[in-house]
Design brief:
single chain, alpha/beta, eight-stranded mixed sheet, seven-stranded antiparallel sheet, 48% helix, elongated, EC 7.2.2.14, ATP binding
Amino acid sequence: MSDLNVKERHRMQLPINEAACLPPDQMLEHLGSSPAGLTNKEAAERLAELGPNAVRTHRANGWAVLGRQFASPILILLIITAGLSLFLGDATNSIVIGVILLVSVGLGFTNEFRAERASEALHSRVTHRAVVLRDGTTQEVDVTALVPGDVVHLSLGAIIPADIRLLSTKNLLCDESILTGESLPAGKDHAPVAPGSSLGDLASCVFMGTVIQSGGCTGVVVATGGRAEFGRIALGLGERQPQTEFQLGLKRFSFLLLQVAIGLTTLIFIANLLLQRPLIESLLFSLAIAVGITPQLLPAVVSTSLATGTRQLARRKVLVKRLVCIEDLGDMDILVTDKTGTLTEGRISFIGALPASPDVSDAELLTLGLLATETDYSEAKQSTAGQNPLDAALWEISGAAPFDPTRFERLDLIDFDHQRRRTSVLVREAGGPARLVTKGAPEDVLALCGPTSPNVQAMLDEQFDAGSRVVAVATRPATGMSNITPADERDLVLAGFLVFLDRPKANAGASLEQLATLGISVKIATGDNAKVAEKVCSELGVISGGTLTGADVDVLSDTELAAAAREATIFARVSPEQKARIITLLRQSGGAVGFMGDGVNDALALHKADIGISVDSATDVAKDAADIVLLEKDLGVLAEGVMEGRRIFANTIKYVLMGTSSNFGNMFSAATASVVLSFLPMLPGQILLNNLLYDSGQLAIPGDRVDKEQLLAPSHWNIAFIRRFMFLFGPISSLFDFATFALMLFVFNAVPGEFRAGWFIESIATQTLIIFAIRTRRVPFLRSRPSAGLLTASLGVVAAGIFLPLSPLAGLLGFDPLPVPFFLSLLGMIVVYMVLVEVAKQWFFARAAQQLPELPTPVRRRPDTHHISRRAARFSAPVAGIAPGRPSVTIR
């Protein structure tokens, strides 16, 4: 096969629905492969010809990042206003707006691109592997390196890496809901299907992106990347990720501002026309008001906050697969975590064999345990690749060295699944009689044996009480049998127990305590025995609210389980499906649920959670399903990530509250004055310059300190809260604007140039300095100190605001010099203003409406595109682009 020309081998095309109709041997022949798979040389040739098995790229794309900067409604308003100003002949307005645009887009692009480059570097460190046969041996390769013709082995919990024609199956069920929408798992078999079958009826194939719910299989890759069914859907969605709750809240807020801006500017424009003001002057002033009421640098502040958070987490070696996952982390209030590898070290070690009777030796019990292994004996002895952790730990001990694979003939096998929780094999030794060997969870294996003696039960309880993981081994004669079914798992005789240990992590208790202080309810979901889970929790200092077992979960209705899950702390002996059901019900009850796991049995739950979290030592299946991967085995990093997400949200809301209240007050003052006065209170260019200075000072907000109490619970977008804040503090700002108007008109008899200079200085000083009151619910400076950066930036903006009307540029900007007494009056007004705002703030936050949410937390119902895009992240290559288009390829 290897000497055939590549183009010649690709001359035929075979869609997956036709591949499903062919017998396995013909399928292999069409693909130029064999049961032993491809050679490494052939695989390399096909990879070069077809490209990587990928539907996404994690290379940072500067043009895409730049394009996203213009997606904000606020920036679109700025662009339209700049264009109209230029068209109407107001070059000054256009220049000022252009500067605002350059600053906003430049800062947003710089920070987001920098963050994506950091994410790209971290993403490249996490690989997703598949077990394949190449050169006749089992190897692990990156999923993006799979090619048509590769023979792959897949087991429980695996995400199917490509469209695959099955060669052999064992009790195989697949969750294909991501493709078909069908909630029940689909049964699979390697037998050909009838021609013309629909996608959901192709039982002889498994599809990229779907998940193995039980059993295992071997198959040959038919289509990869964009040629696979899932790949075509994923490519159709494009590279853009679905929006998070944070982004949706930001969008709702932007549209709120647009509505206010459009309504206010329309009224101002009509009023000025009725007063017979010049049309162009009225239009430019109205546009300036529209721009002035919006926080123009909001996109830059958000991207700066995200970039800052990403860099902070990157220093702690945390991989955030998507930038906005940081906010998802901060939003979390329930964490359900697996025990193995997250609370424990994840290094499972075999510590001993406990025979159930004197007739069974330690060596014989160990041999029986090795026989009840799903992988081929000769392969298992050479390599533990693709094995479950318990089997791998068993094969790696010195006691496995004398095991001779040639002595035993395996006649049949029933793979492990999470319903039966055991593996059974039918074996024959050196031509002797066959016998059945079963290995699995003690409760399930003992149920298949005769009555358990008190000594055996005491032995088992002792191990559970010590926190050990225990596997029971049982056997019986099976003379004359050549195959087995689950019904044959009966009348067994207990041989004994294999004991394993996975110690709790030294710092896990402190980390869990830290999460609890952040208002996160921590729950444990494990497939282990309840006593083992309770022992680990006890050692870590977790106070239990009760334990639910898998049997309890099965008998409870969804309503009953939702209530019980809220109270319980430990879910023991739960299957992957039960974990996923628990996660779903916790989310439906209003919580923002994170799930942390590292095993193949955690994949379903990771996909169901609002935020999936795993660790670098996890199985590829778990890392694939996670949104965030902790590259260090330190759960304290997770707590830091939660605080970072909340810090970003808190600082973003600071900008929103300060910008909307000050801008609304100033623009309301300008609108009122424009109707009352015989001249415009501030020229359009002066309004925009005022906003540019003010917003520039607030670019230091992402690095500001956040009060501790703001990190102790998740925060959510509350448009009603923002509206109330704006309508309280905006008029207070306007009140002092009107006082300034009276001072300038009736005390100083100001001409238009003086009036505008006086209000410009008062406006920039009050709205900038008030940052220090609004940024915290505490008393500013005394109980809540701002960051040095924010303090410096704010004072610099005030200095610039005072300097400009006094500088040589004053005439160009439309300002006239001011008398010295004005500045003494200004100082007094600023002091009174800050005191009044502080009093209003204390009253505002003391009200019940600001203490409790007005509505229950909404249930999060994410669209199908969210799950498709999230799973597509697994098939990502560091290349500039992924070709979407070639159909399934047949290789002869």
